[in-house]
Amino acid sequence: MRLISLELNGFKSFAQKTKIEFMPGMTGIVGPNGSGKSNIIEAIRWVMGEQSAKDLRGNKMADVIFAGSDTRKPLNRAEVAITFDNQDHYLNSDYSEIKITRKLYRTGESQYLINGQECRLKDVLDLFMDSGLGRESFSIISQGRVEAIFNGKPTDRRAVIEEVAGVAKYKKNKTTAEKR
Ligand code: ATP
Ligand code: MG
Known about the structure:
Elements lengths: L1 E8 L8 E4 L15 H11 L29 E9 L11 E9 L4 E5 L2 E3 L1 H8 L16 H7 L2 H12 L2 H12 L1
Antiparallel strand pairs: 1-2, 1-3, 3-4, 4-5, 5-6
Bound molecules: adenosine-5'-triphosphate and magnesium ion (MG).
The site of magnesium ion has 2 residues, from helix 1.
């Protein structure tokens, strides 16, 4: 499983459609302060289902939509797509290439797609559940996260261990089944 590309359109400072292609191996993102490095990482988190505007340095989710600049008008929509090579089926899907798309309009309307087919947020989250890549995983470590784990409640720490150990999925399925 490998990251192939990230496409941004109207997400934060990326007013113009931008495609980043990742080569095999390690990738570093460099640039001056304020050039959008963190915005790229946030786009990855967002398209994978992030629901906290605060964790994306905003007050409300619509803050991820390009807000305008001296030379450009604000946009009405943010769109991010991420493509994974899944030939080893590391992600729980029959597809050997998986493209996830998330769109958000200023009206509040939002949309998730997996390989072009509209789906629920849950489908996106399920894809990453127990993969070590999900919202609550350690694949992306932001500033302050380390302290949060060390200073967190024992129950929160336990949730972290359950995600790492791969039992979070079963726990969630059990809760869902019990609700029915
Ligand atoms: P640093 O090196 O300081 O960490 P960085 O490369 O990580 O910088 P980012 O934090 O990704 O930079 O980008 C910040 C820029 O993105 C700011 O100029 C900010 O105005 C712009 N930005 C954030 N949200 C939006 C938005 N919704 N619309 C337009 N621009 C935005
Ligand atoms: Mg930054």
